[in-house]
Amino acid sequence: MRGTVGTSTALLALAAVLMAPTLASAHVSVAGPxxxxxxxxxxxxxxxxxxxxxxxxxxxxSVTIDIPAGVTSVRVMPNPFGKVTVTKTLVNxxxxxxAVTWTxxxxxxxxxxDNFYKLTIRxxxxxxxxxxxxxxxxxxxxxxxxxxxxxxxxxxxxPPAADAGPAPEPAPAVVVLPARVPGWxxxxxxxxxxxxxLSALFKDAEIVWKGTAAYSANPxxxxxxxxxxxxxxxxxxxxxxxxxxxx
Length: 247
Fold this sequence. Notes:
The protein is mainly β and 247 residues long. The chain folds into two domains: 5-21 and 203-246, no CATH class; 28-176, Uncharacterised protein YcnI-like PF07987, DUF1775 (Immunoglobulin-like, Sandwich). It is built from three helices and 19 strands. The chain has helices at 5-15, 195-202, 219-227; strands at residues 28-30, 34-35, 39-46, 50-51, 57-66, 72-76, 83-91, 94-103, 117-124, 132-134, 137-142, 152-156, 169-170, 173-177, 184-188, 207-210, 213-215, 232-233, 242-246. The strands form four sheets. Strands 4, 5, 7, 8, 11, 12 and 13 form a seven-stranded mixed beta sheet that branches. Strands 15-19-16-17-18 form a five-stranded mixed beta sheet, covered by helices on one side. The two termini are 16 Å apart.
């Protein structure tokens, strides 16, 4: 599989070092990565509620998640949070779910902001490996006295410009990986991948190889890469690069 015996030996030795899981969180986030052209559960986490103008905490009472174009076969999982409703729109003459809303009954709103909520849908992600799919989300909170606060929009999809003023809150995002099997997988990268994107794309991989260059998100594997003769650090990918990835 590799070009030289020496490099093959290094690859097998490095693959024995397993990658420790990496977790990331945001105020409203979605667990990832996802897999291209694959139906899967998507779990959205609501890490906190809101505060009113006086700084008092308020509970999340409603969450709406917009379903982006290309995400299909949406099914909603019932949740103790509250009633689930869907918004449907005609897309190419087909009735398509374009938003999902969970709403608490007024009597279920709790005083304060002490709860963590997880909301789940089942959906098929588009066949766009190495892309990022954003799910704009809208969070409503209600105080213990019944006051409904202004909606918080989690809709940002790009880093803010330096002079653009306050940026929108970031939308939950799923990095789409190509479908794969346990063990070695060969991929052709369709778009360039910058250094700061490698960890998002390959955080659950044991190791990534391009020629004699290797990448891992695991610090122990990185040390092995540095210590292995003939192996260099893989820092970026160009469109059209062929890579081997071990999961």
